[in-house]
Amino acid sequence: MKQNFTVRQGALDGVEAFLSVAQHRNFRRAAAELGVTPSAISQAVRTLEARVGAALFIRTTRSVGLTEAGAQFLSRAKPAFEELLAASNVARDLGQRPSGLLRLTVPRAVVPILLEPLIASFCAAYPEVEVEISAGEELVDLAAKGFDAGVRMGQFVAADMIAVRLTRPFPFVVVGSPDYLRRHKRPERIDDLRQHACLRIRRSNGSIAPWSFVDGNKTIEAIVSGPLIAHDFPTMLGAAVQGMGLAQVPAPIAANLVKTGKLVQVLKSFAPTTPGVFLYYPSRHQMMPKLRAFIDHVKGRQVAAAKTRGRADDRRTRGMKPR
């Protein structure tokens, strides 16, 4: 027979009163400790006894003692009630100050270029918060999987999420290694990709993503082919560096490789611009202090970075000579 493990409504009523009376062996002292009247304590204990179905105290005009049932009830109820109080205190602490485990789901590509410096400074500022990063491309249900927040490119953030910008908009660029471009004619038009090995990415829903371009005011999606299908941008980028073919990736993750000459950008005039990368979460009303602290930390770093860029721009402006 299936057992019912649900605690029925009111099952804990009177337990605190019972424990206080059992500790003091006195109804008045228990009432004073709990800040209620002795009659209220007596009524709570009588209600508990009726619900349990046994007398818990032996009462005389001079003393209060435990029955055998009361002693057994005390031995089980006291540690259980103390655990409930401890659980309440832990929950209260998590609700009042930044502490506990902050779980984030993020794409692998953003971890080294965006999250590593951010997480390092956040952990230094909030030592009572532990940060767990789950790196993957799958778009997960934050609440169902127990995540506090996620990081994704703006076009993949659901409309009912609250989003905080982490980067400015950036283009999706097509890159190839110098060795590959020596062996294959450099593409000048989107149609030229038909003659090229194009590395592709499989989305979390199972489909293979087309390559996206802009041509004037038109958006073009190109179906390309090539020797490799990856499940994340870093894998595809690594294959491009090895000369396996061309790859279309977010510009920030390819920037250093382009700067050092390991990759070359092609089809620049057709590169589409994406909204950028965002931190997203379900609701301000359900926000724990650990997430609020992380969001404030993100915004603080953005303000500092903007000031640094402003000072650099000012220095460049002052260094310009009038014509």
TrEMBL record:
Keywords: DNA-binding, Transcription, Transcription regulation. The lineage of its organism: Bacteria, Pseudomonadati, Pseudomonadota, Alphaproteobacteria, Hyphomicrobiales. One of its GO terms (molecular function) is DNA binding. This is Transcriptional regulator. Gene3D superfamilies: 3.40.190.290, Winged helix-like DNA-binding domain superfamily/Winged helix DNA-binding domain. PANTHER family: HTH-TYPE TRANSCRIPTIONAL ACTIVATOR TTDR-RELATED, HTH-TYPE TRANSCRIPTIONAL REGULATOR. NodD regulates the expression of the nodABCFE genes which encode other nodulation proteins. NodD is also a negative regulator of its own expression. Binds flavonoids as inducers. Residues 16-67 form the HTH lysR-type domain. It holds the Pfam family LysR_substrate. It comes from Bradyrhizobium manausense. Belongs to the LysR transcriptional regulatory family.
